[in-house]
Design brief:
By secondary structure, the protein is an alpha+beta fold. It has a single domain, classed as 4-Layer Sandwich (Chorismate synthase, AroC fold), CATH 3.60.150. Helix content is 35%, strand content 18%. The chain is built from 13 helices and 16 strands. It has a 5-stranded antiparallel β-sheet with strand order 1-2-3-5-4, with helices on both faces. Strands 7-6-8-14-9 form a 5-stranded antiparallel β-sheet. Helix 1 packs across helix 13 and helix 4 packs across helix 13. The longest helix has 33 residues. The termini are far apart.
Length: 444
């Protein structure tokens, strides 16, 4: 299978399927010397996993990762203190599938002859034939985005150490839109939301805070713990603290479900989504990603423009559009309205606007990079739909019976955030190399 690889300097290869033994991300280009733990990777994975709130699929995958390679298994010299530091070799992260029971497999087996409209079911069957991994949609399932989150977290941590912040939040669901929010406030809100999710996630508390899996354990020990957890999923979930919306707002200053920095808009988003979901249907929305601290000039021209690289986020399942800056709105602007005028102030360049979204000519301008993703409604719905029998081409009727998300928007924003981090790190490594070479060769 082609198409499961991204990057030139920071490279990521993903593998696995929704109902295979698990998902895998292999990263190349991770610099040595960085402490990395499964707990911190899971802190991002739990933001995307299903079953976390009333808007997401009830599938109960914990999404607990195992770092298999790329870290020092012990201090390289006695007392060096570099155990569990990255060592520059390929880093691999395994995400086992633990909630894959026969009752759910049987549901797919019973409906796989009739492709679900809006899914890849029909096209993948034609491409791969009868051995197509159709249980749970295989690698075309939203589960594969867990690999993007895991790999992107590593990229995001490296970027942060270089002074670059990448964050994302929900801009719109079911036609309810969040107003403009200052970037600093949005970042603060998003960080608080992530902390809340960690504090309320029963697996985070049981597995990591409770010390069931620690960085000192060998991989076989970790896998044995996951085998236990597979049988305890419901028991652990039952330990989750009761969600009190008012208490969460008072303590964290965030919405208890939606990562939207306008809490009133978040409430309206949930209400609108639930009203449509009650009819058996689903809704879409918009996710916004922001990156600050990106050095001016980062990126490449022509085929590898930075905004074109961000356009690769169309590879995220359910994303049907990516715009940078003003995006499609520029069609209604004049040149003077669209241009971001500049002035010098205290030896620094200051822009009057950011319609370019921090990128011109494929290169970063030094302004915040802003991208928005449009997310389609979840295609698995509880409504009769017309389809076919993919073996006989007979016309058929289909009503979805599998587990589903009322909207996928709430699980896309962490994927977009970490995908953006992968793109930026890939370009940052090249940028640093180019700048250093330029300094070496230019005449003094």
């Amino acid at each position: 299978m082609m198409g499961c690889h991204l990057g030139r300097c920071f490279q990521v290869t993903v593998a696995g399927g929704s109902y295979q033994d698990g998902m895998t991300a292999v990263l190349q280009g991770v610099p040595p010397g960085m402490l990395l733990t499964e707990q911190e990777i899971y802190g991002d994975l739990l933001l995307r996993k299903p079953g976390a709130d009333e808007l997401s699929s009830p599938r109960k995958e914990p999404d607990l990762p195992i770092i298999y390679t790329g870290l020092n298994a012990a201090d390289t010299v006695e007392g060096a203190g570099n155990r569990n530091h990255t060592n520059g070799t390929p880093l691999s992260v395994l995400i086992p599938n633990l909630d894959r029971h026969f009752i759910h497999i049987k549901q797919y087996q019973d409906t796989n002859r009739t492709p679900r409209p809006g899914h890849a079911s029909y096209a993948s069957f034609i491409k791969y034939g009868p051995d197509d991994d159709a249980i749970g949609a295989g690698i075309f399932s939203g589960r594969y985005t867990s690999t993007i989150v895991a790999a992107g977290y590593v990229a995001k941590k490296i970027l942060k150490l270089c002074g670059i912040e990448v964050f994302s939040y929900i801009k719109e669901i079911a036609g309810v839109r969040c107003g403009d929010v200052e970037h600093a406030a949005a970042l603060k809100y998003t960080d608080a939301y992530k902390q809340m999710r960690c504090d309320y996630d029963p697996f985070y508390q049981d597995v990591y805070i409770g010390g069931r899996i620690t960085p000192e354990m060998r991989v076989l020990e970790k896998i044995s713990i996951l085998a236990q957890i597979e049988k305890q999923i419901d028991e652990i979930r039952a330990k989750a603290p009761k969600i009190d919306a008012d208490e969460i707002r008072d303590k964290y200053g965030v919405h208890h479900i939606v990562n939207c920095p306008d809490i009133a808009a978040a409430d309206a988003m949930v209400d609108a989504c639930n009203a449509i979901s009650a009819t058996g249907d689903s809704v879409g929305g918009v996710v916004e990603v922001v990156a600050t601290g990106v050095p001016t000039g980062l990126g490449e021209p022509v085929f590898n423009k930075l905004d074109a690289e961000l356009g690769r986020m169309l590879g995220i399942g359910a994303v049907k559009g990516v715009e940078v800056g003003a995006g499609f709105a520029v069609k209604d602007m004049t040149g003077i309205q669209s241009n971001d005028e500049m002035r010098a102030d205290g030896g620094k360049v200051v822009f009057g606007s950011n319609n370019a979204g921090g990128i011109t000519g494929g290169l970063a301008t030094g302004q915040p990079i802003i991208a928005r993703l449009t997310v389609k409604p979840t295609p698995t719905i509880d409504k009769p739909q017309k389809t076919i029998d993919k073996y006989t081409l007979e016309n058929k009727a289909l009503a979805a019976i599998t587990r589903r998300d009322a909207t996928i928007v709430g699980r896309i924003w962490p994927v977009a955030e970490n995908f953006t981090a992968m793109v930026l790190l890939d370009n940052l490594i090249a940028h640093f190399g180019y700048q250093m070479l330029m300094e070496k060769v230019k005449q003094k």
